[in-house]
Specification:
The chain contains five helices and no strands. It is mostly helical. The model has no long low-confidence stretch (mean pLDDT 84).
């Protein structure tokens, strides 16, 4: 049990560190886009600048949501004791974090597809379908590890829930 708890602590701390770094980069990018759009004298492509600004704001919002989820998960992991691991509250938090990671992955996937569609210039002779497929592949390749972690956390949530039910039945037994 101590090994599992230590592994979760390392995983959650690593994810929090990674999200903080990415959030910092996106906030700096957002401030640059705002400065470029509203305070710069240079003329820029209005449609692409608005889309970039909108997509970056959505990314910052999703990263903030992810940061909040991971902090909640970290609090749970650090407060788990061997005798209280199988509880309804732990099961609920694990489910919330697992589903949140899936929602985050889907949201970031959609944002990345749009970003890749706007940023990448197609090469002469390549079809639109090829470029769209390439954008989908690039966007989904980054999401697979996080989706695996999310499904792993959902499986653990189910195991905690089943363990809680067994613990309740055992407590009722004479």
């Amino acid at each position: 049990m101590k090994n599992l708890s230590s592994s979760f602590k390392i995983l959650v701390n690593f994810l929090i560190f990674a999200v903080c770094g990415t959030l910092l980069v996106k906030v700096v990018t957002l401030s640059k886009l705002i400065h470029l759009k509203f305070y710069s004298l240079e003329s820029s492509d209005t449609v692409n600048t608005y889309w970039s600004l909108f997509l970056t704001m959505l990314t910052v919002a999703l990263l903030s949501y992810m940061f909040w989820l991971l902090l909640k998960f970290r609090k749970t992991i650090y407060s788990i004791k061997a005798e209280s691991f199988f509880s309804k509250q732990n099961s609920t938090i694990f489910k919330t974090v697992g589903k949140g990671l899936i929602y985050y992955s889907i949201g970031i996937f959609i944002i990345r597809v749009f970003e890749n569609s706007f940023e990448k210039v197609s090469v002469v002779g390549e079809s639109v379908a090829y470029n769209m497929g390439k954008n989908f592949g690039a966007a989904i390749a980054d999401r697979i590890p996080l989706l695996l972690i999310a499904f792993f956390i959902l499986i653990i949530a189910k195991l905690i829930e089943d363990g809680y039910q067994l613990k309740k039945e055992n407590d009722l037994t004479i």
